[in-house]
Write a structure and sequence with these properties.
Elements (H helix, E strand, L loop, with lengths): L19 E5 H18 L2 E5 L6 H9 L4 E4 L2 H9 L4 E4 L6 H10 L4 E6 L2 H14 L3 E6 L11 H12 L4 E7 L11 H24 L6 E4 L5 H6 L5 E2 L9 H4 L14 E12 L2 E4 L14 E2 L5 E6 L4 E5 L10 E5 L3 H5 L4 E6 L2 E7 L8
Parallel strand pairs: 1-16, 2-3, 2-9, 3-4, 4-5, 5-6, 6-7, 7-8, 8-9
Antiparallel strand pairs: 1-10, 10-11, 10-15, 11-14, 12-15, 13-14, 16-17
Helix pairs in contact: 3-4, 4-5, 6-7
Length: 370
């Protein structure tokens, strides 16, 4: 927690202290509308992924634009959103700890909560707490459709789904079939092929369940990079996109297919040139504590003459090709390489419209790792 905020409502954008996490409200709102209108036209539900923003104000805007609820990755994240009034939360992850199960079912007293499983032991932990509390809960079986992270194999998904149906008061809610590895395949044909294979596997599991008399209410998944393919598959009926509201440099490097939608960069890091020791090197006051580098360095917004090449804890080193266009004290705007972990570094979003601070939104679920 910083001892003072980077800005206050009404400040000019040029008066914001740096480094600060900036949200361009106009671009953000266009992204929100584009996703909402696209999914409404296709008859597909949006369950917006809140791990991208960790901000209840944004979740409320997404729901106001038609999202059925949100998903997040951690029980503690879910607790923050439920406390803020979000009534439908799917935790797109597994838990095995009885303590986490206790926390999860406490949330189910006031909101609709869902959870994923990919092993019988997880079902046992959830059912024990469900019986103890008398609460029902939606349980989705996660199927590995290509990401090779969590998820039961398609061959074993029917057995696990059967177990969930026999574990009242748990409710079998459907299948979770997210192909995270496909989101950043650069070639559009590769993304299409990956989701076609994922959809084929999801459909095979659904058909196998139906053959055993198990109704699969929902197949949920999809992300910002591939959601149109899941929508058009005829298999998925719920999209879990998250990054579309912000976008980042990594998503920007995906080659667009002929029918792909282009969301706008709305999330930025505002930083200042704090040192200019050589004509070909400037240093800004944003470093590893101000942006994530797991997907590479941030890009400098609308400045092809500048390249952020190196970062240490509190410094970013900029390679300068035209020293006449940059000066000590200048503000620069960075596009994060990966929006999700970058957001988690900040306490608040400084929301800008017409070069002025219109709102400041707390990133209330920052650091919610439990």
């Amino acid at each position: 927690m910083t001892p003072w905020p980077a800005a206050k409502v009404g400040d000019a954008a040029t008066a914001i202290d740096t480094p600060a996490l900036i949200l361009d409200l106009d671009a953000f709102e266009r992204n929100i509308a584009l996703m909402a209108n696209t999914l409404k036209a296709k008859g597909i539900r949006l369950r917006a992924h809140a791990k991208s923003h960790k901000c209840p104000e944004i979740a409320k805007i997404q729901i106001a634009h038609g999202a059925v609820g949100i998903c997040c990755q951690k029980v503690s994240e879910a607790a923050v959103f439920v406390a803020a009034g979000i009534q439908d939360v799917l935790v797109t992850n597994q838990i095995i700890s009885p303590l986490k199960a206790k926390k999860l079912f406490a949330l189910a007293r006031t909101a609709t909560i869902g959870i994923l499983v990919d092993a019988p032991q997880q079902v046992e932990v959830l059912r024990a707490e469900a019986l103890l509390t008398g609460c029902a809960m939606d349980v989705y079986v996660e199927v590995n459709v290509g990401s090779n992270r969590c998820g039961v194999s398609p061959q074993d998904a029917v057995t696990l789904s059967n177990l969930v149906t026999q574990s009242a008061p748990l409710r079998f809610a459907g299948l979770h079939c997210y192909h995270g590895a496909a989101q950043h395949l650069r070639n559009p044909a590769e993304r299409k092929t990956a989701i076609e294979q994922a959809s084929k596997l999801a459909n095979e599991v659904r058909n196998a369940l139906q053959a055993q008399g198990i109704f699969c209410q929902r197949i949920s998944g999809a992300g910002t990079g591939t959601f149109l393919h899941e929508c058009d598959s005829g298999i998925f009926d719920e999209v879990q996109a998250g990054s579309y509201i912000f976008m980042d440099r990594d998503y920007g490097e995906n080659e667009a297919g002929p029918n792909d939608l282009r969301f706008e960069n709305a999330l930025f890091i505002q930083t200042s040139v704090m040192s200019f020791p050589q004509s070909n090197r400037a240093v800004v006051d944003a470093g590893l504590k101000a942006f994530s580098v797991d997907s590479g360095m941030p890009a400098v917004w609308q400045r092809p003459d500048l390249q952020l090449t190196k970062a240490s804890d509190e410094h970013g080193v900029i390679e300068v090709s035209n020293p006449e266009r940059i000066h000590l004290g200048d503000y620069l705007t960075l596009i994060p390489g990966h929006c999700d972990p970058t957001v988690n570094l900040y306490d608040e979003l400084v929301c800008i419209r017409n070069n002025r601070v219109e709102a400041i939104w707390p990133i209330s679920a920052r650091g919610a790792l439990l």
